[in-house]
């Protein structure tokens, strides 16, 4: 108390805490179909609605918390500080405040049966008109004010089937802001505004095409089965390819057998296989009347197979907000039959690095390799 400093002691021994929570949900699926007849271009439209409601409760474990009083001094007011003896541990302290909320969600899908342009085709085509239009919010039963969370709207608009999808989303808030841009317990419509106040919005879309689109080849679906996509990431490599411990990119193991069959020929096709992926994203923020574009970028990624064994690729983009290039990566790969050589280079930016690898492709001899990499010093 004389020095007006906080002292933290570590007490040896065993101590533990218990916490629990409860949540439940219920939902259903509703189908609705409108038929227009077999002679109409749109023969039928189907609307699939999936409403759901959930309840979640987390008791407050305030008995695991204590407090101490910092007395008033000449330049500091009196302050009460709460703490838990489990702060800084592996799992941390349990929640102190009681929480109880109801979640509401409504998912919509619109599909249509369209008559094919080819008159010899008798069966209509199934086309997605609007995919996963999801509207959700929650109501805080334990709160004393601002109980309704902003309404979230997310959806996907297919423009070109299996080629171009536009993803959009926004958050709408019913509460108004005061002069300090803080949410207050007053409806925005009663404060001279509209019914909803848009706090943020985003839109993104991507388009991919390759030499197969111009030669009638089949689409390479192996890219949609890579490790990154299975873990919830993008199905393409707009932000660069990840590398495994053997120096190969994540999707090269899946394509190795197919590449061997295609490159066993003595003569290589004169046409150079290539693929290109484009993506555009824009985010708008207006949580405190700032009305700013927080991100606005155009990204691309592509690969060119110069020969049966040489492949080069690049990933980059341009950020229109910060007026600079996004994460840029250059890739070089050489198939040496039983060996593989790769070079991965990020020339600039926060993750500037390069990685060179040469090794045997066989899984039994994959430890026979040479790997050299260099990363910038993150401490500088």
Q: Could you explain how this protein is built, in words?
A:
It is a single chain. This protein is mainly beta and 380 residues long. 5% of the residues lie in helices and 48% in strands. The chain is built from three helices and 20 strands. It has helices spanning 212-215, 227-230, 252-263; strands at residues 22-27, 30-35, 42-58, 65-70, 79-84, 99-114, 125-140, 151-160, 164-173, 175-177, 183-187, 197-210, 274-285, 292-305, 310-319, 324-325, 329-336, 339-346, 353-360, 369-375. The protein has a 16-stranded antiparallel β-sheet that branches. Strands 4-5 form a two-stranded antiparallel sheet. Strands 10-11 form a two-stranded antiparallel ribbon. The chain is extended, with a radius of gyration of 29 Å. Residues 219-225 and 253-264 have low confidence and may be disordered.
Q: Which class of secondary structure composition applies to the elements?
A: mainly beta
H/E element sequence: EEEEEEEEEEEEHHHEEEEEEEE
Could you tell me the number of beta strands? 20
Number of helices, counting only DSSP H or I runs of 4 residues or more: 3
Map the helices and strands.
Elements: E1 22-27, E2 30-35, E3 42-58, E4 65-70, E5 79-84, E6 99-114, E7 125-140, E8 151-160, E9 164-173, E10 175-177, E11 183-187, E12 197-210, H1 212-215, H2 227-230, H3 252-263, E13 274-285, E14 292-305, E15 310-319, E16 324-325, E17 329-336, E18 339-346, E19 353-360, E20 369-375
Antiparallel strand pairs: 1-3, 2-3, 3-6, 4-5, 6-7, 7-8, 8-9, 9-12, 10-11, 12-13, 13-14, 14-15, 15-16, 15-17, 17-18, 18-19, 19-20
């Amino acid at each position: 108390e004389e020095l007006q400093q906080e002292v933290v002691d570590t007490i040896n021994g065993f101590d533990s805490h218990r916490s629990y929570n409860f949540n439940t949900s219920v939902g259903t699926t509703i189908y609705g179909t409108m038929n227009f007849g077999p002679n109409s271009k749109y023969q039928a439209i189907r609307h699939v609605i999936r409403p759901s409601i959930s309840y979640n409760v987390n008791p407050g474990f305030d008995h695991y918390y204590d407090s101490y009083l910092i007395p008033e001094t000449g330049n500091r007011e009196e302050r009460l500080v709460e703490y838990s003896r489990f702060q800084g541990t592996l799992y941390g302290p349990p929640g102190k405040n009681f929480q109880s909320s109801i979640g509401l969600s409504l998912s919509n899908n619109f599909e249509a049966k369209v008559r094919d342009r080819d008159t010899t085709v008798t069966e209509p085509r199934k086309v997605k008109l609007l995919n996963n239009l999801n509207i959700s919010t929650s109501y805080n039963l334990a709160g004393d004010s601002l109980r309704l969370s902003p309404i979230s709207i997310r959806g996907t608009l297919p423009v070109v089937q299996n080629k171009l999808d536009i993803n959009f989303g926004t958050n709408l808030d019913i509460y108004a802001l005061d002069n300090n841009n803080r949410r207050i317990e007053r409806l925005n419509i009663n404060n001279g505004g509209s019914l909803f106040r848009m706090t943020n919005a985003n839109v993104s879309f991507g388009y991919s095409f390759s030499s197969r689109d111009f030669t009638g080849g089949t689409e390479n679906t192996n890219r949609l089965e890579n490790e990154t996509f299975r873990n919830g990431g993008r199905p393409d490599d707009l932000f660069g390819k990840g590398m495994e411990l053997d120096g190969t990119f994540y999707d090269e193991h899946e394509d190795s057998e197919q590449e061997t069959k295609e490159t066993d020929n003595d003569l290589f096709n004169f046409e150079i296989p290539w693929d290109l992926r484009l993506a555009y994203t824009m985010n708008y923020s207006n949580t405190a009347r700032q009305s700013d574009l927080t991100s606005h970028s155009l990204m691309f990624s592509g690969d060119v197979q110069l020969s049966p064994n040489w492949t080069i690729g690049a990933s980059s983009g341009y950020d229109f907000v910060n007026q600079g290039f996004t994460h840029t990566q250059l890739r070089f790969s050489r198939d040496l039959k039983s060996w593989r050589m790769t070079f991965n280079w990020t020339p600039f930016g926060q993750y500037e690095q390069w990685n060179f690898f040469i090794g045997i492709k066989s899984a039994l001899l994959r430890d026979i390799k040479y790997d050299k990499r260099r990363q910038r010093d993150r401490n500088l």
